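Input structure tokens:
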């Protein structure tokens, strides 16, 4: 039994202000416990995947093995052209099996952010959400042991 303020016998009608505004976030973690993110206010594309890969390579400064999910932006023609232009020597890409999010340790990052860092958060707008998300990411970056534990949680021994 739930109480509402609707007149007796009438179904309450909730009015929600909806927009197409959203935040898109790409993230990656390393076995050393590093967390790297890319946040945009529009849908992510193959170009953002390339930006993220370049940033990862510059941040870590060595050859990379990147294992990511099967999102269409990861398989875009832009990404294929990027790798064909010499980046395949610096970045090797592998894909997780389809429909196996439990194998992806980065899912642990998002579970932690959603269910611990941002739990019970109510934001007034997209700007406020972005600020709170960046603060939560910053807090998580300080917990390298926790980030490393996401690999064990996915059944990947380091």
């Amino acid at each position: 039994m739930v109480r509402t303020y609707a007149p007796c016998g009438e179904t309450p009608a909730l009015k929600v202000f909806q927009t197409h505004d959203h935040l898109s976030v790409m993230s990656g973690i390393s076995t050393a416990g590093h967390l790297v993110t890319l946040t945009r206010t529009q849908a992510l594309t193959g170009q953002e995947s390339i930006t993220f890969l370049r940033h990862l390579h510059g941040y870590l400064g060595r050859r990379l093995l990147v294992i990511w999910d099967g999102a269409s932006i990861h398989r875009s023609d832009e990404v294929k052209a990027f790798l064909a232009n010499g980046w395949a020597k610096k970045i090797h890409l592998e894909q997780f099996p389809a429909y196996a999010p439990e194998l992806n340790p980065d899912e642990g990052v998002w579970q932690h952010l959603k269910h611990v860092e941002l739990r019970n958060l109510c934001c007034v707008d997209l700007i406020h959400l972005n600020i709170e998300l960046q603060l939560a990411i910053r807090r998580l970056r300080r917990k390298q042991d926790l980030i490393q534990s996401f690999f064990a949680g996915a059944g990947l021994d380091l």
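The mean pLDDT is 90. The longest helix spans residues 126-141.
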